[in-house]
Predict the structure.
Amino acid sequence: MLGAASVIVDDKGRVLLDRLTGVYWEPAIRAHHFVFRARVIGTPRVADPAEITEIGWFSPDDLPRPFSDFTMRRIADGLTDQPIRVHQVGPRVWLR
């Protein structure tokens, strides 16, 4: 993984990066989004309880809503072993 550490470490724990799963170009804001498949090493923890009140593990078919089509795209890409592609991101569609 060029340009990314294979292990991300902060004061709350470690995350092991498995692989880059997608690159997304968003021309409206002239930004690239890079998404990685990763695993938590140890027990997952909330870094700032003031920002996150609850964490949970969900199957892709049972995710809490609402979320955007862009979020669903990144999750779907992360669950496959397909070659990485650059995708263009358009306006978000909210799935309810």
